[in-house]
């Protein structure tokens, strides 16, 4: 992307404030600008609902809901107490829980994990011995991008002890502490460490010692259940909520399980901007620990937008990204889960924090709003980020459509083939992967099907391409269509099928099928 000069600029008038004025938006930003930006973004990207809030100089100076709680045109309106899944913005709650334990003297950031959790193991014994608490948090472990996410998402019913037991089978794809690769799995381990240190569940500790202690309204460490009515539904998801007695707590929770309203998140922002204290002065974590989690601990490559925002560095702390943004420090994080996206951003020197929550399965709308508002706060003007990310979406969609039509599975260049029932039987059987468990290939009528023991909702038909290659199309098209996978069967020298390798057809890094190495252990599925 070119520099700011290549983008049109939106001037933001400065408003003179009377003496003793009520809490006001930061200079360079008006409520009318926010309303216009949000509604234009909703329209451009077809976002059902958005909630936006601004904290400035210790006060909540803007908080508003827009649109609907679900894709259903007749669903209720979003308000400031509507619960959204905040995804990876949960990571900051997990690191804050650890910071609280550091404040209490129960652990140190550079403690070895095995000294507190003797059952902790990774693939390399040396790395196991030297793995520090901080290494769980900085995405520089050496594991690949999204490693282990298939144990956490996609209908998974794994438990946290099973996650720990599978860690030794996760491959390392880079040297320890060398390369950045975003990882949810180790945040689940960090949550298990919180449980080990406190003797209670991650959910209970975070709810009582952080959410309730800080007074976050409409915010919870567990998924919503029947009876909770002000709840957003992410795209591709059902609005039906489970009964409380049958609720299964998601194993991914320490990496992405919190549900919160924009009112709840603004209290969280106030606490962080206030050095770890609530607006009433109650200490949740010390300022020293707030500064520690906000400090750069691992360097990252610059984003494509760095020139336009005058960025010179980007880093990761403990659960937070940080960068320079038009000469100011910016601390932020996003979260994507269950068809929803959250984005929390701080400009500490400007005493400003901004929260954006959406029920749209695309990061671009929240990026449009956050980058525009952060630009207005820091400089009084903004590039046309709506045009930038809309063009990116259009270009990406066109590129994907061209690839699908010309070289994708089922295209003229790669047509599907028909296999007889006899030929299909070569592939039928029980397969086992060391970390993902059992995988079944079965015949049903004229179709071959693939399913997972530890993901009851993840199953689909296999469509054949030449040379023992298939594409699995998952049954749940609303939720899983973007994760259809190539399935390559391997044979030995005698022509007998011995195993499988997989790769997602699209680009979802959290569907880490490439790390699976299932071996065929039986001809009977």
Automatic annotation (TrEMBL):
Keywords: Hydrolase, Signal. Gene3D superfamilies: 2.40.128.600, DD-peptidase/beta-lactamase superfamily. Residues 35-369 form the Beta-lactamase-related domain. Residues 1-21 form the signal peptide. Residues 221-245 are annotated as: Disordered. One of its GO terms (molecular function) is hydrolase activity. This is Serine hydrolase. The lineage of its organism: Bacteria, Pseudomonadati, Pseudomonadota, Alphaproteobacteria, Acetobacterales.
């Amino acid at each position: 992307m070119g520099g700011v000069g290549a983008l049109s600029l939106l001037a933001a008038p400065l408003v003179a404030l009377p003496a003793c004025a009520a809490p006001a938006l930061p200079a360079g930003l008006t409520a009318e600008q926010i309303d216009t930006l949000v509604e234009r973004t909703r329209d451009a990207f077809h976002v059902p609902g958005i909630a936006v809030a601004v904290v400035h100089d210790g006060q909540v100076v803007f908080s508003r809901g827009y649109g609907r709680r679900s894709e259903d045109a007749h669903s209720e309106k979003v308000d400031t107490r509507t619960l959204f899944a905040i995804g990876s913005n949960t990571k900051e709650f997990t690191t804050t829980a650890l910071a609280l334990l550091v404040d209490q003297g129960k652990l140190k950031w550079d403690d070895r994990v095995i000294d507190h959790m003797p059952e902790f193991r990774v693939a390399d014994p040396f790395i196991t011995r030297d793995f520090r608490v901080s290494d769980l948090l900085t995405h520089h472990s050496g594991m690949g991008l999204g490693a282990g996410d298939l144990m956490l998402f996609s209908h998974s019913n794994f438990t946290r002890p099973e996650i720990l037991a599978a860690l030794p089978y996760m491959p390392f794809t880079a040297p320890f502490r060398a390369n950045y690769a975003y990882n949810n799995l180790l945040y689940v381990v960090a949550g298990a460490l919180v449980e080990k240190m406190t003797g209670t569940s991650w959910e209970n500790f975070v709810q009582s010692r952080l959410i309730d202690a800080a007074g976050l309204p409409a915010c919870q460490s567990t998924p919503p259940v029947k009876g909770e009515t002000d709840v957003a539904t992410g795209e591709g998801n059902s609005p039906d909520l489970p009964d409380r007695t049958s609720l299964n707590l998601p194993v991914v929770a320490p990496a992405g399980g919190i549900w919160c309203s924009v009112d709840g998140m603004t209290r969280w922002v106030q606490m962080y901007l206030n050095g770890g204290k609530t607006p009433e002065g109650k200490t949740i974590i010390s300022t020293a620990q707030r500064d520690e989690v906000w400090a750069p601990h691992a360097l990252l490559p610059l984003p494509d937008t760095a020139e336009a925002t005058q960025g010179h560095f980007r880093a990761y702390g403990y659960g937070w990204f940080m960068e320079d943004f038009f000469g100011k420090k910016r601390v932020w994080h996003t979260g994507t889960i269950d068809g929803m996206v959250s984005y929390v951003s701080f400009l500490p020197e400007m005493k400003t924090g901004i929260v954006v929550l959406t029920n749209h399965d695309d990061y671009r709308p929240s990026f449009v709003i956050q980058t525009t508002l952060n630009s207005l706060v820091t400089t009084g003007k903004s590039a046309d980020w709506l045009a930038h990310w809309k063009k990116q979406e259009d270009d990406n969609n066109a590129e994907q459509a061209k690839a699908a039509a010309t070289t994708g599975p089922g295209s003229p260049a790669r047509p599907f083939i028909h296999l007889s029932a006899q030929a299909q039987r070569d592939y039928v059987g029980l397969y086992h992967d060391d970390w993902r468990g059992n995988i079944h290939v079965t015949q049903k009528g004229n179709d071959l099907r693939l399913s997972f023991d530890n993901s009851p909702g993840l199953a689909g038909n296999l469509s054949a391409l030449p040379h023992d290659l298939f594409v699995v199309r998952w049954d749940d098209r609303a939720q899983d269509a973007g994760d259809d996978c190539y399935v390559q069967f391997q044979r030995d020298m005698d022509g007998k099928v011995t195993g499988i390798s997989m790769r997602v057809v699209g680009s979802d890094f959290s569907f880490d099928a490439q790390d699976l190495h299932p071996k065929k252990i039986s001809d009977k599925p």
